[in-house]
Amino acid sequence: MSWISFAVFGYFLQAVSVLGDKIILKKILPSPSSYAFWQGILSLGAVILIPFGFSLIPTDKIFISFLAGAFWLYGLFFFFTALRKADASNVLPVVLSITAILLFIMEGFFMGHQFSPTDLLAGVFMVSGSVSLSLEHRWGHRRKIRGFIIPAVVTAFLFAFSTFLMKYLFGTESFFNVFVWSRGGLFLAGLTLMLSPEYKKEIFQGSKSLRNQRASVSIVINKIFGASGALFVFFALSRGPATLVNALQGLQYAFLFIIGAFLSLWIPTLHKESLSPKAIMQKVFGIVFISFGLFILYFYGN
Predict the structure, then answer these.
(1) What residue ranges are annotated as transmembrane (predicted)?
(2) 168 or 260, higher pLDDT
């Protein structure tokens, strides 16, 4: 299978997880610090992958693996913060576009990766389509924009740094080895949230919600989707250019819209998606751009 196929399936699973994140932040764990903390704790589930190729690696690479995982966890914290203040359809395009630019610069400058004109064209179509998916939204007053734009930008930087470090490690170590070691970084970063008295209080308060079996099972199931999606996306990252793997994240938003639309029609009390004719046309336009970019990349890219 092509790395593109792994990325597509991974982003589908992550779309399900992002929608679950939004619902959980609204109904179960309203505090981003509490949700990020449990994300870090549950990342230890990666130990089930130890039999597939885990081993000791040089100390400097252990540090880089932990750093990549920590950047990802802190990125999730800021992502959840932005997600509480705005719709995923506002947050994701900002994160995606800035992350794509940063990865393009880092991968070209530090790794010397040469992108073909076809690859660049596909990337432009996919990123443009992803950003256009949010254009029909009214972002509101300037204060509201500042409320989510700052954590969204910080999220993009942290995700870009994490992805770049993971790409570097995949070039020197086995996939499962890097993935397991990086999850250790997520776990340790989650524990550092307890160092803040404010976050510690929020974590303990949020933990009370987990006493409800239905709530705790929902979180675990959602994290299984998220972790499985990350596994497929990182495997694609180990085989393909980081910039293009990230550009394919636009598919995650397309899946998010489609799933959200079905939920709005069947279970509107759980999730509400804008389905006005203007909104649908705008999103279809973005999805067509993403699909065209994917077609170019799959059949004509390097």
Answers:
(1) 6-25, 37-57, 63-83, 90-111, 117-135, 147-169, 175-196, 217-238, 250-268, 280-300
(2) 168
